Amino acid sequence: MKVAQMINTLSVGWKQKLRLGIKPTFFCLFAIALSLTFLINACSLEQNQSLKRLRVGTSSFPGYDIALYGQISEIFKQRGLEVEFVQFSNGQDSSRAVMRGALDVTFNSFWEVMQVDPGNGNPVVLMTIDLSSGIDGIVARPTIKSVADLRKKKVGAKLGTISHLVLLEALKANQVQPSEVQIVDYSNEVAAEKIKASEIDAVLLWEPMLGETAKDIKGNIVHTTKQVDSLVIDTLMSSDSIIKAKKAELKQFMLAWFDVMHAVETKPKEVFNTIGKKLGQSGEAFASDYAGLKKGDITLNRRMFAPEGRLYSAKAEIVQLLKADPRHGRVVRQDVEIDATLINEAMAGWKS
Question: What is the pLDDT of residues 107-154, one digit of tens each?
Fold first, then answer.
């Protein structure tokens, strides 16, 4: 008998006794209250135990923050999951935590997955979260009008990160060799301050800092990821050893993710307002930031995970770019797996 049914049976039983004129003693009333408290707590415990726990690494970025709606709206719970988001300042640390078994999965760019440190098993890309389409870009001083003008200039970008990737694919698209540009190894925040102080000529940023910095220095946004089929692909990554242990939970997370993407499509104002409130900003501001991304819905994932799809060609292109500019000093992982098994099952099984 379920706990809730037991509570109902106990309640009905005493109601029948009262109708017959049988009055409970103080001890009986105390026993009833104690039993009900125990059963209610047991019911709560039963519900919590039925939820499968998943620890997910994340960082402050609109493409990842959108997942908060799944938590606030209880979409994850409806899919049988208790999701704990663990905040990191960068994707390298969260991927390292996955490979060491401290996390189940993490949101991270494909670019950074290709550089993750060795750990327990091989890194595996399981799903596409979003694709950069204008949210990342290069802002330059007023005298610089194009990417070609960056030759022999100082450009602020953290080596080995997404900023470095955006710069390299912009240079490639404009026939500029990486060696022709002086990269100054700064974080986004430091680089933004350096260009305001006229210490560097250009900087790699993402929205809203990209537009805000351009406005502050009266500069030019000379490139964004909307101008290319960007390699800035955000993914859900794990390790092969964790996938074997958490296959059911991961599939449910994917189904819940598609629920969130469906909500973005059908009721965007509610979603953006909900997340904006959680982050302490307006829904309009969050919507504006998220607009620079192609959302990781079923359509995008089909393109990415199709046989010989975009993820496979992107992997080869990322290896080429990392080798073309070794200033990052990182080892390129050749064993990163692209596993379409779970995402294909989730896409086939998802219903709105």
Answer: 999 999 998 887 778 999 999 999 999 999 999 999 999 999 999 999
- Looking at the fold, whether 241 and 221 belong to one and the same domain comes out as no
* Among 4-13, 97-106, 163-172, 309-318, the least confident range: 4-13
Residue 281: both structure tokens together: 């900003």
Query: Distance between terminal CA atoms of the chain?
Result: 33
Pairing of strands 293-295, 123-132: antiparallel
Check if the beta carbon of residue 93 is closer than 8 Å to that of residue 59: no
Residues 112 and 250 in one domain: yes
Nearest C-alpha neighbor of 55 from the set 336, 245, 259: 245
- Beta strands 233-239; 81-87: pairing state: unpaired
Amino acid (one-letter) located at 248: A
Domain around 220: 136-227
Rounded to whole angstroms, the Cα distance separating 253 from 267 reads 20
Residues 267, 212, single domain; the answer is: no
Its pTM stands at: 0.83
Residue located via tokens 């060799």: 177
| CB of 92 closer than 8 Å to CB of 57 | no
Helices (H), 20-132: 26-50, 62-65, 68-72, 75-78, 91-99, 110-113
Q: Which two tokens stand for residue 209?
A: 């800092």
Domain identity same for 101 and 243: yes
Whether omega before 307 lies within 30 degrees of 0, making that bond cis, reads no
Q: What is the pLDDT of residues 68-91, one digit of tens each?
A: 999 999 999 999 999 999 999 888
In CATH, what number is assigned to the domain containing residue 259?
Answer: 3.40.190.10
- The helix-helix angle for 341-349 and 240-266 (nearest 10°) equals 30
Which residue, of 181, 197, 227, is where some domain finishes? Answer: 227
5, HSE (Cβ side, Cα atoms, 13 Å) = 2
Residues 250 and 111 in one domain: yes
